[in-house]
Amino acid sequence: MASAGVTASPAPSANRGPRLQKGVRALAIASAQLLLIAAALVAVGWVLGKLWPILLPVILGLLFATVLWPPTRLLRRLRFPPALAALVVLVAFLAVIGGLFSWIVPQVADQADELADAATAGLQDVQEWVTGPPLNLGEDQIGQAVDQVINTVQGNAQNIAGYALTGVSAVGSGLLNLVLALVLAFFFIKDGPRWMPWLAAQTGPKVAPHVAALSYKTWTTLSEFIRQQALVGFIDAFFIGLGLWILGVPLVLPLAVLTFFGAFIPIIGAFVAGAFAVLIALVSNGWQTALIVLVIVLVVQQLEGNVLQPIIQGRGLNLHAAVVILAVTAGGSLYGILGTFLGVPVAALIAVIYRYVRDELDGRTPEVADDGTRVQVTGDETGATVVRERVATPAAGRGDAAADAPAEDDPEPRPPS
């Protein structure tokens, strides 16, 4: 008989041991699977890192192709041969870029002396401010601070020289990748429409719809990214450039161009371009003008982020702002300036592939669009055509059952990625 005040513990269940063993086994299997997945990701990352010198010009070439394909398609509809259409568009593109830089560089050179004089005067104003109240720093203290900076620079002269050589090497490598990307872009817009049908044919009838649909999604994602960022960049550059012109800030055109290209590095690019505009205004026109420029930049960027982006990117990349920042940061830390530019489109492509695989695993047949059609790509020597084959009614567009109906051709030819 149990003594008073002592609670008898219940007898252990006969199933406790088997359940514990089952739980431990499930935990071990899950841990092993996670380790295998982590190892696979590390291996994929290592392979991509080794292949990056090849992948970089390919990705850049695809981005160039998304810009160059619409005028190329127009010329092909006007009976231009594919090679001639691609060559004309590529030469025109290079001429526009070259003309833009030939217009900007003389302006920067002409106003460089003026900016240098303004910067010297600004430094003198800063020196007068720090020597007066409330800081009241002496000339000897300022001299010591300057000497420390000079000594630091001299002590790191070797490292600075190494950084300069690394920068020169990086510039040379970047130019080589740029040339290779332009060459690939030429072949993409010349022969690209014939590649996707060939690839789909090599994968077989079961895999071909997935190859066509995934490639089509990839191409449209890249195209939408370029178009959207170009429109956003143009609007930002126009209004910020207009404000700088009204305020009499020098280098209006270079700053507007910097703002335009900064839009292709979401969030961070706009911040850097705005900081340059404020800095030039501060050096050349004083802090009052710089403050007004800062307000203009903030207002334009707020209108862009809260009004334009939701409208323009309604069918866009579907990436959270935090993912965008992480993609830009990761790309910049791994591959520098090019990485910051490519971070967001690469992240968007990864998201496209992930969503496609996820929908396929969930049985939602991602190769079937929301309107109940499946994307196929066919083509010949004259180009490619997106064929939408109806496989289900829109209401049951995510099911398995549907009878095939006659194919409907999209009249607009599109190049696959």
Automatic annotation (TrEMBL):
Region spans: Disordered: 388-417
Membrane topology annotation: Multi-pass membrane protein
Keywords recorded for this protein, A-Z: Cell membrane, Membrane, Transmembrane, Transmembrane helix, Transport
Keyword Isomerase part of the UniProt annotation: no
Xref: InterPro entries: AI-2E-like
Organism the protein comes from: Geodermatophilus africanus
Family, per entry: Belongs to the autoinducer-2 exporter (AI-2E) (TC 2.A.86) family.
One GO CC annotation: plasma membrane
Name of the molecule in the record: Predicted PurR-regulated permease PerM
GO biological process, one term: transmembrane transport
Parts of the chain that traverse the membrane: 26-48, 54-71, 83-105, 160-189, 231-253, 259-283, 290-312, 324-354
Pfam families associated with the record: AI-2E_transport
Subcellular location(s) of the protein: Cell membrane
Biased composition (Low complexity): 394-405
